[in-house]
Amino acid sequence: MSKADSNKAEKAEKSGLKARLPRGFVDRRAAEIAAQGRMLETIRATFELYGFEALETPFVEYTEALGKFLPDLDRPNEGVFSFQDDDEAWLSLRYDLTAPLARHVAENFDAIPKPYRSFRNGFVFRNEKPGPGRFRQFMQFDADIVGAPGVAADAEACMLMADTLDRLGLAGQYVIKVNNRKVLDGVLATIGLGGDAQAGQRLTVLRAMDKFDKFGTEGVRLLLGPGRKDESGDFTKGAGLDGAQADKVIALLLAGGSEETPERFAFVDALLTAFGENETARAGIEELHTIAKLVDAAGYGVDRIRVDPSVVRGLEYYTGPVYEAELTFPVTNEDGQTVRFGSVAGGGRYDGLVGRFRSEPVPATGFSIGVSRLFSALQLTGSPLAEAPAKPGPVVVLVLDRDEIAAYQRLVATLRGAGIRAELYLGGAGMKAQMKYADRRGSPVAIIQGSNEREAGEIQVKDLVAGAEAARNIASNAEWKAARPAQFSCPEAEMVERVRAVLAQHFSADA
Question: Which intervals hold domain Aminoacyl-transfer RNA synthetases class-II family profile (predicted)?
């Protein structure tokens, strides 16, 4: 370590301030932002194809607007990040994008067309223990239909999920699985978990069922019963069901049979035979039959959209069909095991959420895409949408004479006025360090003007791309200085034309 670096480290240590990222949060740099933006644009275009329109809601909502769907009613900071306003009202960072939509629709009910198709994307926040792939801030992309009571809206949502994944290049590598909370509620009612008094235990059961793909039959059985301890030693309290109750729940999860999906309508009929003794479950199965009929008529085979009774969405506010998009290609998990990639999107019908703010019920359905997880999937499949576009850095105008910085600023303004990305070097280093800076910026061209060039009305244009290629074939520093590869002089008036010619030589017009 140099003396200067040592002094800096000593000063930082004395200040007591340590640069560190909070747990559960990540920084993102330009390349990832640009690549992810391409994916988001594809999603947006697909949603608009279905007639959805954009909506933006704030990060902060009144905590009461999230209501009983908070992880812990008695502690506003449990599960969500909350704080008190100056009038002592509790506010929370949004937990998802659905509750803010419900508030917006209720607040603007008479001004918006219904059914109301909207999409939103943005960050949401969870005050939960972070872990591998589990963040406290992450991005979602949602699509919802509010005001459509029939399950045709749910079928439409499933088809939109499928078409979105197709357009992202994942055709043949996913399946949209559909279930119905009425089926789940009906089965749970038969084991004594119906009604408001059992709402908390019922939610614990649903969350346990939602772990079926991750933990399998025995893991879910533990979560349905006394609880489960994970590899780190953390214990998750179970739902407290007895053996007979747990068997009934497990039977429903296993009702989907093998991976060889049966014929679409015969399979739904088999569900009706097995679980249709309960009136609520029967209604849910009949809705699943309608969805199957609609997606079948639209040409979506069982390889793309199918009924699967193991699908459970963990939130209590779902009231009807629930659905999720599962990617089927194999990946290696943290334990070195080969598993499916898993779910990247999910949602369902939530007819009671908007109605909390109004006297009449307002039907609604929709789903959310986990942006980061979907982006990881595209990276694994080698999708070009997950690659940062090959975009050159800005042209850098070097500053050799600080007393003439206005002259250099004029050169930069001329380039920008012609639509060429350009920046003025604003540091305090000399020419050699400025060239290194241009290289780190990925700059294709450096503009150099000393006092002699200024007096002559000229500039030096250095083609950094060609220069880097030439450098690989030049053996000595003396040879380099003699050759001055890829560098030429031109009148200031020709700067834009000559820079454009260099850029066209190395990059496409849309770079």
Answer: 38-389
Q: Is residue 290 located within the same domain as residue 250? A: yes
Contact between 176 and 161 under an 8 Å Cβ cutoff? The reply is yes
Which pair of tokens denotes residue 40? Answer: 């988001």
Q: For 189-217, write each residue's pLDDT tens digit.
A: 888 888 777 888 888 888 888 888 788 89
**In a shared domain, residues 353 and 424:** no
Please give the Cα distance from 320 to 26 (Å, whole number): 35
How many residues are listed for the chain in this entry?
511
Domains of the chain: total: 2
| Cα separation, 325 vs 168, whole angstroms | 13
Shared-domain flag, residues 296 and 380: yes
Q: What one-character DSSP code corresponds to residue 26?
A: -
Residues 399 and 382 both lie in one domain = no
Quote the CA–CA distance of 63 and 42 in Å, as a whole number: 33
User: 3-state DSSP call for residue 461?
Assistant: strand
Residue 327's beta-bridge partner residues? 174, 342
**Separation between Cα atoms, residue 257 and residue 161, nearest integer Å:** 24
Per DSSP, the residues of 39-93 read: HHHHHHHHHHHTT-EE----SEEEHHHHGGGSS-TT-TTSBS-EEE-TTS-EEEE
- The distance of Cα 187 from the centroid of its chain, to the nearest Å, equals 33
Determine the Cα–Cα distance for residues 511 and 506; give it in Å rounded to an integer.
10
φ, ψ (nearest 5 deg) of residue 367? -140, 165
Q: Are 278 and 132 in contact (CB under 8 A)?
A: no
- This prediction has a pTM of 0.80
How far apart (Å, rounded) are the C-alpha atoms in residues 292 and 311?
Answer: 15
Model confidence pLDDT, tens digit, residues 123-176: 999 888 887 777 899 999 999 999 999 999 999 999 999 999 999 999 999 999
What tokens were used for 156? 């439409």
User: How big is the chain by its Cα radius of gyration, in Å?
Assistant: 30
How does DSSP classify residue 198?
G
Answer yes or no: do 343 and 492 share one domain: no
3-state secondary structure string across 253-273: HHHHCCCCCCCHHHHHHHHHH
Q: Which residues, other chains included, contact 390 with Cβ-Cβ below 8 Å and sequence gap of 6+?
A: 507, 511
The answer to whether residue 9 sits within a structural domain is no
Find all residues with CB under 8 Å of 46, minimum gap 6, and list them. Answer: 160, 163, 164, 167
**How many other CB atoms are found less than 10 A from the CB of residue 373?**
17
